[in-house]
Structure prediction request, 482 residues.
Amino acid sequence: MSPSPYGGPSRTSAPAAPTASGNDTYRPGSTIDEWRPEDDSFWQSVGRKVANRNLWISIPALMLGFVVWQVWSVTAVRLNDVGFGLSTSQLFWLTAIPGITGGTFRVLYTFIGPIFGERKFTAFSTLILIAPMLWLGFALQDTGTPYWELALIAAVCGIGGANFSSSMANIGFFFPKREKGSANGLNGGLGNLGVSVVQLVAPLVVTAAVLGAPAGGPQRDTVKNTDVWLQNGAFLWVPLLVIMALLAWFFMNDLKVAAAPFSQQKIIFKRKHNWLMTWLYVGTFGSFIGFAAALPMLIKNNFADQGYQATTYAWIGPFIGALMRWAGGWLSDKIGGARVTLVSFVGMAASLVVVINALPSGSDQGSFWAFYVGFLCAFAFSGVGNGSTFRQIPVIFRDQHLKNAADQGPQAQQAALKQAEMEAGAVSGFSAAIAAYGFFFIPAMFANISVTSALWLFIGFYATCLVVCWWFYARPGAEAPS
Prediction:
């Protein structure tokens, strides 16, 4: 067996085509030794059903990960109302800290999942999120909880964001090339809905003792002069996390084809397109998650005195962005991911120009509705870009490996496809890990420099993304059209 020019083996025994007769092999909870979604007969008879079962369990599990990751974006805006007495900078930092641990653990989760098996790892990574939710719920009942403890809880909550990297790397293996964009768009997009779910549901459940006496007594909201149960926004998710961990364990599958030790996965750090696509995904997903974390505080700090409540409006932007992720993946399957990515960056830049011009300045109170619509558009375009970039990654690596295995026979082609799948999964997870730091940097920038200056910096970054996407992926004669 000799190595291929692009890093994978070029000679291996061709596996026999799987058939529908071995259905026990594909039962819920099993490890699947052979998986060939590009084989139409296998895909229609067995593959589609198994892939969809794994997808529709992965989505709500991932959604809950985002709920835990983003719970501080809605918790922070209520802390001072019940007597915590934190500064604006401290509150922004509480929304930013989960981004550090989320991004860092995403790097680990990218490579750990394929080592241990994604079914087992999905169950485990969902179950451990119970701990920060319980800790947060108890801490919120005592306004004397020190800031360092709140910051530590925020850091532990950030682990919920790491689930994205392992989940997205896994789901891509189940689907054929023609459906990867839609499948990844559904998994990522509906998973991203966890941001909107927590920003919509948490403010509702904290207004009443909906969880009963076991959840604890109320705090007094000194602004609205009403009782609130902030701990409900954390405790509510605990039973759901238990349920999804059990469903993942008993009904998902481990794919042997997706299993890979780190020694094989680390090849991506030598791939130029790993770093280029990471740059682009920082621009799309980094913006989505960072804006989602920061928007509630931006509304409160700039427009609360005009009667606009952050909890009323903040959830809609991430909701739109999450749905548009699927649209971006679907559209990319039709016309190509690079073209869609270009449109997303132009749209985000134009949207932020609207936001900048709508902000209060001096005696000018600004325009909330222009500000809000601008942000909604920014979320929509970031969602489209999230879907398109994740569709680009498997196409780029598949085409690169097949090109280098051309004229070497079907065995070399099969080996190239397997190597491409492994690398694309690892790149998807790694790029998602780095982009997750947008959750930290965007609120942190708003906490330390003016909102206007930060937004102009984002627009400048989008300009660099446009250049990278056009030169390497979209222009006529591009190195890796996708």
About this structure: The CA atoms of residues 89 and 448 lie 8 Å apart.
